[in-house]
Design a protein that fits this description.
Order of helices and strands: HEHEHHEEHEHEHEHHHHHHH
Number of strands: 7
CATH architecture of the largest domain: 3-Layer(aba) Sandwich
Low-confidence stretches: none
Strand order of the largest sheet: 2-1-3-4-5-6-7
Mean pLDDT: 92
Radius of gyration: 19 Å
Bound molecules: NADP nicotinamide-adenine-dinucleotide phosphate
Distance between the termini: 38 Å
Strand content: 5-15%
CATH class of the largest domain: Alpha Beta
Number of helices: 14
Largest sheet: 7 strands, mixed
CATH topology of the largest domain: Rossmann fold
Length: 275
């Protein structure tokens, strides 16, 4: 690492929430040459997660959230959005670069809860990060964060507006929706082009999604992948339901963006009510 990224990460990197995403980030950091002894990770106490942390070779990196906040200069928050309350009461240093990977929780809500300005990051799925084919959007832009993520093998998109996180979230959910659309024989190029006129990075993200989606030896294996990646009530499911009900691919993408906004608006007020 050079310049700002080196200065920042020399203070140690912490990952609050060493689940699927947290472990992928930890492994990508270590593979990029980051000194393992400088990395701290935490988890919620479940024995199955502990087993996975052990299997990933991160047992000696386990710390707790208070220690991570006290001693790390870069902190990735990778707990689920529904666990966000576990961050309340933690004392983050004003000089730390704190990066929330939680989908749908705005910077304003986090500022109100934690009292600091947090960066937001929306990465693609852990399996794409593991294969060094991951992409990530960040907001706002920051050179040190950009460099750390690039070294981890992620292609970084610096968003100009936080609202664009919704479009990017749809982008990282595209591999399964593309499989459904193609199974139906839909022509995607015009839709992707039309949507790309509003969101210039979208065509490139679609090409990425085509490149990372797995190939299948049978229709059953493909359908099983689509089922597995569609969380109930989530964005992928919204897009796939839209396609199955006869909508165009463009309409399905728009439905995905609306679903991302709906999920976020339910999380926002919930945070305010508790604060
Ligand atoms: N997975 C993806 O594809 C993806 C993509 C983009 C963004 N994200 C975002 O990344 C976040 C994590 O997703 P995930 O799929 O990695 O979920 P996950 O596998 O459930 O990981 C969440 C981790 O947080 C830990 N945790 C819970 N309470 C904690 C606490 N008080 N202190 C420290 N750690 C705690 C959990 O530990 P226990 O298991 O012990 O409870 C678990 O290991 C979410 O906010 C999601 O929106 C995920």
């Amino acid at each position: 690492m050079t310049g700002k990224a080196a200065n920042q990460s020399e203070g140690g990197i912490g990952i609050i929430g060493c689940g699927h995403l947290g472990r992928s980030l930890a492994e990508a950091l270590i593979d990029s040459g980051y000194p393992k002894e400088m990395l701290r990770v935490s988890y919620g106490g479940s024995s199955s997660t502990l087993e996975k942390i052990k299997k990933a070779g991160l047992l000696e990196n386990i710390s707790d959230n208070y220690e991570i906040c006290k001693s790390s200069a870069v902190i990735f928050i990778a707990v689920r959005p529904q666990s966000v309350e576990c961050l309340r009461g933690l004392s983050f240093s004003g000089s730390a670069l704190v990066v929330s990977c939680m989908a749908g929780i705005s910077r304003a809500s986090l500022k109100e809860m934690l009292g600091i300005d947090v960066f937001r990051m929306m990465p693609s799925s852990p399996d794409t990060i593991d294969k060094r084919l991951g992409i990530a959007a960040i907001y706002p832009r920051d050179d040190a964060l950009q460099e750390i993520l690039s070294l981890m093998g992620l292609r970084v998109y610096e968003l100009l507006d936080e609202e664009l996180m919704h479009v990017f979230t749809v982008g990282v959910c595209l591999p399964a929706a593309l499989l459904v659309a193609e199974k139906m024989g839909l022509d995607l190029s015009q839709c992707v082009h039309d949507f790309g006129r509003k969101y210039p990075d979208f065509e490139e993200i679609c090409s990425w999604a085509r490149g990372v989606r797995p190939s299948f030896y049978s229709d059953e294996a493909r359908d099983e992948y689509i089922r597995r990646t569609s969380t109930k009530g989530g964005i992928t499911e919204a897009m796939i339901d839209s396609l199955n009900s006869g909508c165009t691919f463009l309409r399905a993408i728009e439905r995905g963006v609306s679903r991302s906004k709906e999920i976020a608006s339910k999380r926002g007020p919930a945070l305010h009510l508790r604060s």
